[in-house]
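Work package 3, deliverable 3.1, input record:
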Amino acid sequence: MKNHAFRLYRHYISINVRSAMQYKASFVLTILGQTLATVSTLLSLVFIFRRFPNVKGFTINDVILCCGIVQMQFAAAEMWARGFDRFAETVRKADFDRILLRPRNQILQVLGSQFEISRIGRLIQGILMLVYGFLKAGISWNFMKVLTLVHMLFAGTMLFSGLHMIRASLCFFTLQGLEFMNIFTDGFREHGKYPLSIYGDKFLLVCTFIIPYALTQYYPLLYLLGKRTDWWLAFLPLLALLFLIPCFLLWRIGVRHYQSAGS
Amino acid sequence: MIHLENVVKIYKVARRGTGTKETLRAFFRRDYTEIRALNGLSFDIQDGEIVGLLGPNGAGKSSCIKICTGILYPDSGTVECNGFIPYKDRMRYTREIGVVFGQRTQLFWDVPVGDSYELLKDIYDVPEQKFRENLQELTELLDLQKLLMTPARQLSLGQRMRCELAASLLHDPKILFLDEPTIGLDAVSKLAVRKFVRKINEEKKTTVILTTHDMQDVEALSERVMLIGKGRLILDGTLSDIRREGASLDESLVEFYRDMERDDQESGDAAE
Amino acid sequence: MKKYLSFFRLRLAMGLEYRVAALAGLTTQFFWGFMLIGAYRAFYESNPSAFPMTFQAMVSYIWLQQAFLAFFNTWRYDNDIFSLITDGGISYELARPVDLYRMWYAKNLAMRISEAALRFAPVLLLAVLLPQPFRLGKPASPAHLLLFLCTMTTGLLLMIAFVMILYGLCMRTVSPTGIRLFIPAIAEFLSGQIIPLPFFPEKMRKVLELLPFAGMQNVPLRIYGGDLSGDAMWMSIALQIFWLGVFLVLGKLLFRSTVRRAVVQGG
């Protein structure tokens, strides 16, 4: 059964990618557009760090590394959880009916309904920033650091996906005003380019215990940069996966509400 | 077999006045209006039947279909289809039904229709051998040969509807729900759809439940007609029960609705 | 002129309908402002003397930018207009007895004003009540406040004149997507939306201040806190008005030649 689910998901992706390839021009332009956005972020960092060589102990190389990781987390989530991100449209067009009519897990179907391959542009830029940051920040590589990085990328992607899922769950109740959820997705992509500690202790606390961004960004980053050496920091990102539990529950409540109230 | 007993479905609609004061008030306390979409609906449908569901807009046809297919659950009453409770046994039940919404598509817009079918094969876990057989049969019956390689977005409405029908039958469903399957189609396509539905019903003994506003659909397809009004079953019979002397089917139906309204008002008056 | 006014009013009323969206928008903008100031504070604390503006002027810059984002946003377009352009409905518009340029100008102006109208007051109110160093400060002087309001108005008119040129260019090209994606991104960066112009390297800043983009938000936002004052300020205001004139004329010409071409070709 598990195997079947995986095969079905691959099949969904393949159809989505083939669909996107029908519009090559728009695909290429979207990727170039994302490049431009990243370039302006990067330029602004370069300009600011010309004046301030370091902020709260972080240099521009540290920040570029951090920014690259967050960009990758965000892009990967937008790529594979696009079905949740665009869920308002699914509800508006009553396409969720079709999902309920099929003998498959609903979450799998929503994830499969969209796969935004054009986000690969942002993903690649994230990788470039990551590589640049690593080379410049002079990190000595070892297995634990690679593991930390993998945990950060995985957990961060899941965290963003969970936030998309919350937004999608809210669509079952209202389609108005959901833009405020952008604070948590676009907001963290934008402001999470700096290690979260620069915003102060209270903010760091919120990002540790309420929406655990810091578990996938700040703390393991310290370990990567060699500023702290506690081994458990490498595994801390996995704790952020707990955030998916409330997301999942909210989704369940949303589906029940839909089935009782109609569209 | 489909069995509905005393099914009630109530929608709560938030009522909101206009103007700033009302909006502010609504912010704190919401008033709901209850709409009884289904108000004690009961009927039985045997295997292999073709049933036409008729009724004016807003009568509860689409709520009825949504409850029978497991999309919605009822507020009270019993629903049982082929031994399943649709909204509870969704995963198993939906393998046995096919649904076509005339106004919406289940095909992927930008890839060839055949690719969508391949995906449906995986969704419903249809064995390869069975899938090939079904696809070949449906291709012949619906004349899909040329369409399989075409992206759905390039199909005409009539072509698309033929593809939709095939899509919902690839997994050999025992029940087929058709929600306004001929809406917007030209005469040729309408005839093709009707002929096909008849054939499937005769050969595979598929139960067909059909909603439509087109009286000719009903005339061509179903012996049995169920008329729904205000969430209840008003008539369960044949077209001859509706047809009146010297009037077309459409006119007869309008007459019927009018009588229904009047009866309703009289009984309402009597109650007061 | 009357019909453009009524068009303006209609669009304004439509925009004001979206109260919930406005609430969501102002929450976002408030959060954005808060985070931006948080980051700049960290930089300021690391080396106050390297900060190119006073911190207070910076805070004012950010709050006003967030409160009036609807005026400064280079990405804000009328999607109806874009779909008209892409699906060919534009030929009907061209056939109507109205001046397309004026009609769309009015439409975009109303759209932005209605969006700002619902959002600016709550953002500013919250910003005034915040503790230091997040609090929005007073304007440098009453004269600066007055000039801020004037230049923001000019800036808004300039922004829309700019957007009109984009619409005009989109009508002339086969693939408007490219224009739609790239020019706003460049304008956003050059106008000081991502980082204020004083944070740019000195030479670059001097050039940017001469460009039309500087007039869109850089001028009003820096006048409020007194960062732009004296001769430099008057120079910027003159440039802003100059560019507004240039953009209006350019847009008009672009529209006129497009309309003429459409008429000749029969749509």
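DSSP finds 15 helices and two strands in chain A.
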